[in-house]
Amino acid sequence: MPKVMSYKAGSIIFFAGDKDDRIFILHNGKVELSAVDIVSELEIKEQVKQGDFFGVKNALIKEQRTDTARAVTDCQVIALTPQEFEKSFSANREVMLKMLTSFNRSLRSLHYSTETLLKKRDTAATREDGMFAIAKAYFNSERYFSAVYQCEKLLRDIHELANKDAITELLGEARVKASSQAEMELKSHSSASSSDDESKTIKQFSLPVFDRFTKKYSDGDVIISEFTKSKSFYFVKSGEVAVEKLINGNMKRYGIVKPGEIFGEMELLEESTRQATVVARGSVSCLKFNKDNFNSVVVNNPIIAMNMLRLVCKRIFEQRRDLKILCIKDWSVRIADVFLKYVEVQKPVGADEEDQKRTISCTIDDISQDANLCLNDTRDELNKYVSRNKIAIYDDRIVIKNIMDMKRTVDSYYANKEEEKKGQKK
Length: 426
What we know:
By secondary structure, the protein is an alpha+beta fold. It folds into 4 domains: 3-88, Sandwich (Jelly Rolls), CATH 2.60.120; 127-182; 196-325, Jelly Rolls; 329-425, Winged helix-like DNA-binding domain superfamily/Winged helix DNA-binding domain (Arc Repressor Mutant, subunit A, Orthogonal Bundle), CATH 1.10.10.10. 46% of the residues lie in helices and 23% in strands. The chain contains 14 helices and 17 strands. It has helices at 56-61, 82-89, 93-117, 127-140, 144-157, 164-182, 196-205, 265-270, 293-299, 302-326, 331-346, 364-371, 375-387, 403-425, and strands at 3-7, 12-14, 23-28, 31-36, 43-48, 53-54, 68-71, 75-80, 214-217, 222-224, 232-247, 250-257, 262-263, 277-290, 358-361, 391-393, 397-400. Strand 4 (31-36) and strand 5 (43-48) form a beta hairpin. It is globular. The termini are far apart.
């Protein structure tokens, strides 16, 4: 049952780093949230308004708090468990829509910080320029199927093209390369397991009434292209899709969307152009809904609305995690933290406290993407770990001999940074 809790001015309601699942509503008084910006490392503060929720993001996905909540004046708050929150508010369309919109803004802000950190310069003058730049990025990275799909989409969707000859020429070259590539054995992508909440959503969307919304895609198909107008959102029934952005002429992966998850909804909520490209990884089956379906399919369905809210919270947490990795200047430490992230996400089976060996499913290209290093630099850094017998590299996996070595490497890096800060203050 929700509890009314009283706090004196100056009291801490929760600290950054705490792990609890309480969700709060400010009943009266003033509360301030404070957090350290990942990039600037400066403290940022936010005032909670009376009647507003706080502590939602981390509580819903059971992760550590990323901010500290302090009572500015004597105040009263209402504390709820996630189950109580879901029971009381998941059917409240206004609350769900307000939270989804607010959390999407937080996610977009993190994307902007990431792009700024990576010195993104791909501000396309026109929709055609942006889409053509993506096609060239796919071609240059030998992802020829995606290049073909993107060129065909350009020629199909935009009738008057300034670069039609160049696009047609690239399409021809990409088709030849894709044909040769098709003769090679394609890497298979196994479907990831779904959480209980996602499984419930998949079960709902498996009803015959949704069959007419089903779209199937092959490996490399571009489902959504950055720079285009947003008209639809998608639900993944099977397979996986990669979310990517054009950064300095290359495609940077921002995340993987798995079965039971939704993508393409952010731009619909904000009525903006697409901010990312979404590509099929292997065979994918999706449900494609238009903007008119959004309220009836998502907001007015409590189970799906809660699942989507958790998904956005999860994306915020993952984007913060990725941004923190990118802020590590030492490449070796950055890769060590990428290893830690993979272990957190994949939770390798059979790993116990005594045996610190971990096997993670990934390739050198995956490490390169997540560490934002070119392939040659990534190989050099990984080979240093191999030479010290810290890891073993295989085609589809990397064996970490002792995961605690990686944790000590990262912890030592941050400890040294703290010492440097203290020295500067003196």
